[in-house]
Each structure stands twice: as C-alpha cells, then as structure tokens.
Amino acid sequence: MKFLHLTDTHYLKSDHEAAQQMLKQLAKQVAFECLDFVVHTGDLTNDGDEADYQALKDLMEATFPKDLPIYYCLGNHDLKRDYNKVFEGNDTSDLHYFTVNHRGYRIIILDTSIEGLHDGEVKGDQAEWLFQELSEPSEKGTLIFQHHPYGIGWAEGEAECKVETGFFDRLKQSDVLAIFTGHLHMQRNSLVEGIPQYSANSTRFGITLYKEQLWISDRTGYSLVSVSDGLIDYYPEILVPNQTPIDKYLG
C-alpha cells in the first residue's frame, strides 16, 4: 500500500497562485497512478471561510485523479462548519473523524482541533470511539492520521495534543502501526509508547528551530509512504528549495 501525506496548506483565495504552483510542482514529482490514497493532515486553510474551502476543493480535484481517494483531517486553523458545508455537504460544526479500509489496513482519521485554540486534544466521545474501533484488530494493522502530534511540540517538553489519563496505555495495546501528523511545519520522527509517529513538512512554509529560536523558512514538502508486511517506509520529499536531477548536477 502506498499513499501521499500532505499537510498545512494554509490556503486562502487571496494567495491562490502560490497554492496552484505548489500543486503543479507536486504533480510533476509524484506518480499519482501508484497511490492508493492521499491524506491531508490539517490546516487546509488559514482561518479561511466557505469560499476558501470551495476554492481549495476545486483546486485539489483539478490536481488529483477523480478515482484517487483524498481524506482530510482538521487542524487548529480550520473552521469545522465551513469545512463541513463544502467537503461533507452538511451544515454542522461536529468533529470530523471516521475510519476506512485499504488493502487490509484500517485507516483512522481523527479530529484533534478545538476551534479558537492552538493546541489539540483527543478526549471524550472521540477517544471512546477510537478505542471501540481498536477493540478488534484489523487484518494488517491500523494507521492513525491527525493534525496535532502526541508528546512533542516546537519547544522541548511541549505537548501539542492533550489526552486523558490512560490513553497511551490503551493505545499501545492496540494494533496501531504508526501515527501521521502535521502542525509543526517540519519533518519530525518520534515514538509514542513505541509506536512510530511521523510529522510532515508543510506545503505552504517551513518552521525551523535555530539556536532555540523558531524561524520561518521557504522549505516546503510532502511525504510518500509505503506500507508492506508491517514495514513502513516514510520518504520525505522537498518542493522548495528546487532540486536538480543528479545526472545534470554531475555533468
């Protein structure tokens, strides 16, 4: 199974050209026909309205093949009601979480976002739903996708996603193979009670920790992920800075 991990597009209609160019570059680099699905792990827009979500949806549909499933998580810069109106066809501000299956793997999409707050959480009804889903193992294992990562942040010891007592004990007893997140705008790999957690580069702008200070950078990217027989190959790719084929570089 192979999929594309995107995150943090922070789209606004006023900056449409930059997003369009990013997706054009992505289309040049990725063989869409080899993918089983695409996941966007949140911050689709930058506090955008319904019109921004509609423009982003149109742009995504124009970029990717119509038969390629695209799943969306919501981030702290997303507005649930506007997202739901455009992408789900309902006028609610409900949490957006669900499960699907691909090639024997269970794919769980969680909603860690709390409107108006920077940090996220998986608590209450959503947490109970998650562990109900995980109570029966899937054929090949489970992959979880969400915006905020567990246990890490930009500062050492900072946790961007809050959970209830006992959450991680229950998680490590499940068949979860890996967790995929966004939010940090940097490629980060960590372990959550022994479970690999992968945080992807943003497609909009990068954040770099330099001498204990956060810097905005023009680094953007995405990740291609292959999963086979329990082996997860997480391959980060760069959109900016531009790259040169090695044969041209070596002359």
UniProtKB/TrEMBL annotation:
Record domain Calcineurin-like phosphoesterase: where: 1-186
GO molecular function: hydrolase activity
Top-rank taxon, per record: Bacteria
The protein, known as: Calcineurin-like phosphoesterase domain-containing protein
